[in-house]
């Protein structure tokens, strides 16, 4: 008879070794396991087919019953002495012959459970698909594997639930075996031998005691280091359960907010793993996490359906693969802020570092209890991060919608100010058209909440970029970092302000803090190279740029530009032209650098004339191009234009930019740097 069934294979991890070590104990373990197994199979309406040594074969009519039975069985086996059982589940057509079952599905199912660890439940893609509409059962993808005697690779998943272990996928090899990090040590029989020999005991006991004390000390020291490492959390992008761009954007925004909340706990170090980095390194994730010195992984899934909210969060130990803490929240959408705070508190408690009411209060600063306003805000932040003219117009619309929902939403005003500031700074919005919009928004945000690190940082960006108030910007950034020391962007912006003032050691220190928190940001890596360039450490800057380019960073244009300049100052013509060819920047392309090397002033003038036809002109950039050609008078002319056009965000670097070194004694240059307070 042929039928569709859920098929479960189980076995006891390490049973053969236990049998060789102590046969009697092994038989007791096996008997207890069989009794527990048969009880749970009966409870969940399964059909026991046969015992396979220390393993079993069972079928179920329902996938849900099969998975729930597996969860119940694993939990029942967690009481001492724990029995480490691996469980694999697949669904497919089977043929029932007398008291046995056969078929391709049975063969595939038998290959799954070796990919688990004791206490885990591994599922095939078919089973996982059947669970999609059952949000009470959570899973995590382990990857695609070549199972023995199975032609096509098979996608495997692990059940995530209280008491259920999850194998760390990068400990899995092609045979499905994992090294056990917590094997029990059997010392009873050896100690009994010593008791029977008093003379041997007198000689051996002191050595044994010293050995045990040494082991205890090492274990304690190692445990302390391990505990501290777990507090370094790599946060992966939360997945949207529902398809659609808006749901994906909401999940991205929720990830950013979760990072912000956890970063407000000084006892935790949070490292953001961008989606492209995670996807590009699926086969080498362990190495990646080792490089950034993370001890645990935070992942999540999100579903927003009208007024309902589903959030699943999982915190996992990278070294052992064990789940440190996980929970599924099913709440009303209006409880989103509360859910985020609960997650942060539980994570902090599970790692023995309390966030406490003060920490959650700090995170709530400037935010809103209006769920729609909050949704518009986090989607606005995601749009702003893209930094294209279209995405920033979208961000303005979303921040305004948030403000319409809650007119006292301080961070929405802050986001609005940031967007206008960046639009003006990048030449997408005329200064006179946007300055009052940015100023009014940031002032309103500050009036509503002056205790927010984000709002302090927004004021700093506004002061430095649009008003040239560099000293005030530095004060605001110091205040932001005193509120939230592990704020990656604030550390980055503060580093740039310090570099502009020639304080390069402090600048490098703060940019390194930013990279520690956001290790895959193309902009932060580029700014570290920029700081090193300003410090005339060109070779070090190139090393930084090489590392960034070799990492999983998608957009390398800025990196190529800075690398080109560093090679120029080192006098490496071939390298300059090589990397300039990769740069799509109209001003710093290979043609420009050939013009510099050929000292072709007529060609340079032709290029400048073309740029002057553009609607938005960056006069500081034009001045630098002239300085590269040693056209100092023209360079000073463009610097004066840059000052008159209020290009404060680029003029801040006048004194540290190597290209302007020959201008430092010129009266025009001195006059403008004095006006800027540099």
Structural class: alpha/beta
Q: Share of helix among residues?
A: 55-70%
Report the mean per-residue pLDDT as an integer. Answer: 84
Number of strands: 14
CATH homologous superfamily heading of the domain at 2-171: Nucleotide cyclase, GGDEF domain
Name the CATH class of the domain at 2-171.
Alpha Beta
Gyration radius (Cα, Å) is 31 Å
Strand content: 5-15%
Largest sheet: 8 strands, mixed
Query: How does the overall form come out from the CA principal axes?
Result: elongated
- Low-pLDDT residue intervals, each spanning 5 or more residues: 169-195, 219-223
CATH topology of the domain at 2-171: Alpha-Beta Plaits
First and last CA, distance: 87 Å
CATH architecture of the domain at 2-171: 2-Layer Sandwich
The DSSP helix count reads 30
Organism: Parafilimonas terrae
Protein name: Adenylate cyclase, class 3
InterPro entries: A/G_cyclase, Adenylyl/Guanylyl_Cyclase_3/4, Nucleotide_cyclase, TPR-like_helical_dom_sf, TPR_rpt
Domain Guanylate cyclase: 6-113
Compose a concise summary of this entry.
The protein is an alpha/beta fold and 678 residues long. It is 56% helix and 14% strand. The chain is elongated and about 100 Å long.
What this model shows, in words?
- The protein has 678 residues and is α/β, with parallel strands linked by helices.
- Among the domains are: 2-171, Nucleotide cyclase, GGDEF domain (Alpha-Beta Plaits, 2-Layer Sandwich), CATH 3.30.70.1230; 189-229; 231-364, Rossmann fold, CATH 3.40.50.
- A hairpin with a 2-residue loop joins β4 and β5.
- The termini are far apart.
